[in-house]
Write a structure and sequence with these properties.
single chain; alpha+beta; Heat Shock Protein 90; five-stranded mixed β-sheet
Length: 610
């Protein structure tokens, strides 16, 4: 079924498969990965937002120290920083809580004597900060974190550490203002016992949560960066509790630096945990992006599959044409008209094979009928006709097929890059489709030319035609390092012609000019394409090169069929060009250029000027 499809249908099917496979795969991949990436990015924003609140604890706990007056954090600066963090995280509902925290900070006195009634300014600030942390954790998905590597760290940062620091502040508040004589009211002792148990339980929870976090895939790294700081903080808090317990029992004085050391150690542990949490979240984002790019690479592989289909299509076109050429050469050499093209399909190549075989049959029959009358003349005439037809098909169709090969290879290279350039590959595939259509039109045009069919002729702007052909020949010009100069006269009138045939003539002349300069190394390889109009001659199109020129002895033979000066040439290019131009009532000529080069002129005379 595939081989019976037309060439245009095959190429369209290939392009459709290519675009559809890439679009579906890329869309599903990007959609799924973007959800996970956005989830982790929102967590990272929430973690950084919470980190911005850590100075509140530093300053507030310093208010409870024994250093006297300390400078408070600049409240306006804090609110600005929090607003900036919130601005990068859509969905945060923290503005109201930020204002409540700002008010509590402004109410915090520069010096304070902490009472044990639970309504002191320090506890109010810590409570507001904790509420804000909880809300930020909820809004940023931190509390929904499913990854064991970060789940326990975010739990410690968002719930345990704020509680830990608040309980330290409560414990310090219980003893502020009390004499170190041990004469504590009974209520103080009961409250101390409760707070001591609660705080020690919190410390145990932190240790257990951290130990659980070590079981994740990044456990060794988490242990290395956080275990020391957390262990130091827990030890400092336990030491502070032991000192307070001794003071409560026997009235001994607590170490004045115990509270400050415990608070500083706890915030240092917070810093270490927060840094590790941010790093793990960033690693998760990087991993998701890597998987995303890997998936896109898989899409690229699917694109390669499409290229494979294109290659199969290419083989389905080129191989039959090679058989065409082989049979034609055999017929030309052996003059055996009984040979046939062995190719059966329902596409254009198959139709051409049928037409070619029919032509050979007709030539063979005609040769037999005319053998009695003019055997030698008939043989020469039919052979020339057949050879010209066959070679013209092979010669003219081979050029767009060579462009198909070039663009196919280009598409493979674009897709083989580390980051496939899909736009360039798509453009190369479109050029393959265009050249396929062009090959089909060339075949039809050649058949029409030999039938003297004028039905396809229409008004053609030679300047527009020249620009189109120069675009088609651009790769050839770049291959030979040719510098192009165009001198297209604006007022040149349109001519009545077969656009495809005239396009082929101009394309052959431009490519021949580029090839003629391949061996030039001592001067610029210059190709000049110009158009002009003369009342007596009509429209003139000139293609001039700066090559080695044509030997004068060859000048009268270069337009003859099968005559060539190229080692690998068939000698049909200029002969076909001349036949096409003359079939339009014009003429094709070549003149030498001094000091070097050759100019080919297409003069469209005897045609209807539009």
């Amino acid at each position: 079924m595939f081989r019976n499809l037309s060439t245009s249908t095959k190429l369209l099917l290939l392009c459709g498969l290519f675009v559809l496979s890439l679009a579906v795969t890329a869309y599903s991949l990007v959609t799924a990965q973007q959800i996970a990436i956005q989830f982790a990015r929102k967590e990272l924003v929430g973690s950084r937002y919470i980190a911005a609140l850590r100075p509140v604890y530093d300053v507030t706990l310093a208010q409870q120290g024994e250093q006297g007056t300390v400078a408070l954090i600049r409240t306006d600066e804090l609110i600005r920083l929090l607003s900036e963090q919130r601005g990068s995280a859509a969905g945060f509902q923290t503005a109201e809580l930020e204002q409540a925290l700002a008010k509590a900070l402004r109410d915090l006195p520069m010096t304070t004597v902490i009472s044990a009634d639970g309504n002191d300014p320090v506890q109010n600030v810590l409570a507001r900060a904790r509420s804000l942390i909880v809300r930020a954790a909820d809004d940023s998905n931190l509390t929904l974190d499913p990854d064991i590597d970060t789940y326990y760290l975010q739990t410690i940062v968002t719930t345990k550490l704020p509680v830990w620091l608040a309980q330290l502040a409560q414990m310090r508040a219980l003893f502020d203002g009390s004499a170190p004589s041990g004469a504590f009211p009974e209520g103080h002792k009961v409250r101390f016992q409760v707070l001591d148990g609660v705080l020690r339980s919190t410390l145990d929870d932190v240790a257990n949560q951290l130990e659980a976090g070590f079981r994740g895939a990044n456990g060794p790294g988490v242990r290395e960066t956080t275990e020391g700081a957390v262990a130091t903080a827990i030890a400092a808090s336990r030491s502070y509790l032991d000192a307070l317990k001794a003071r409560m029992n026997d009235g001994s004085a607590a170490d004045s630096g115990s509270f400050a050391h415990a608070a500083v150690s706890a915030t240092a542990a917070w810093t270490a945990l927060q840094r590790e949490l941010d790093q793990l979240l960033q690693q998760r984002i990087d991993g998701l992006l890597a998987r995303l790019y890997g998936g896109l690479g898989l899409s690229g592989a699917l694109g390669l599959l499409s290229i494979l289909v294109a290659y199969l299509t290419y083989r389905h076109i080129v191989h039959p044409l090679k058989r065409f050429e082989a049979v034609a050469e055999t017929v030309r050499e052996t003059k055996d008209y009984r040979r046939r093209i062995d190719h059966q399909s329902d596409d254009e190549i198959g139709h051409l094979a049928v037409a070619f075989n029919d032509m050979l049959s007709e030539l063979s029959s005609a040769r037999e009928r005319e053998k009695a009358e003019q055997a030698e003349l008939a043989r020469a005439s039919k052979l020339t006709t057949m050879g010209a037809m066959t070679a013209s098909i092979a010669h003219e169709v081979n050029q767009p097929l060579a462009a198909v090969v070039t663009n196919g290879n280009a598409a493979l290279r674009w897709l083989a890059n580390a980051e496939p350039d899909l736009d360039e590959a798509r453009a190369a595939l479109k050029r393959i489709v265009d050249n396929g259509h062009r090959a089909s039109k060339i075949v039809g045009g050649i058949r029409a030319m030999f039938k003297k069919d004028l039905a396809e002729r229409a008004s053609v702007n030679v300047n527009d035609l020249a620009r189109e052909v120069l675009l088609l020949a651009n790769d050839n010009l770049e291959t030979y390092g040719v510098t192009l100069v165009t001198e297209l006269r604006d007022e040149v009138p349109e001519v009545l012609a077969d656009r495809v045939q005239l396009q082929q003539v101009l394309f052959n002349l431009i490519v021949n000019g580029a090839e003629a300069m391949a061996s030039v190394t001592d001067r610029e390889r210059l190709l000049r394409v110009s158009s002009d109009f003369h009342d007596t001659d009509g429209v003139v199109i000139t293609v001039a090169d700066s090559g080695t020129g044509i030997d004068p002895k060859d000048m009268n033979q270069i337009f003859e069929p099968f005559y060539t000066t190229k080692a690998t040439g068939m000698g049909m290019g200029l002969a076909i060009c001349k036949s096409i131009v003359e079939s339009h009532g014009g003429r094709l000529s070549a003149v030498p250029i001094e000091p070097w080069g050759t100019a080919f002129q297409i003069t469209m005379t005897g045609v209807k000027v539009a």
